[in-house]
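Chain A, query sequence.
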Amino acid sequence: MSCLTVSDPMLVCSCNYITDKDIKAVIHELLDEDCWQLIVPGKVYHAMGKRGRCCGCFPNVVDLIIKTTAEYHAARKTEETEVVNFMERLKQFHEEQKAALAERRQTMLAARRAG
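Chain A, predicted structure.
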């Protein structure tokens, strides 16, 4: 019996069977095209030819986008002030998306209870 290692891929999206390695690879490709573009889960999925189904994985995808983007810029020694400003905007977007998802879930639950 073997334990998972750091290099083992982690399943992020069970609907589309997408791993963290798949997502990181796409993020790197997108950053190579334009290192300052705003990368969101929809853009990552579109680049893979996939669509979000239940979208429950999107908060984890955003976390991967933030981490991978920070690592990308650190490896290229991008000026820190540029990275901080970009990362703050990305984190704000992430929080807005989490709040919107929570609101949609609450609306669905309320509709089910009423129905």
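Residues 11-114 form one domain. The helical segments are 20-33, 41-47, 58-75, 80-114.
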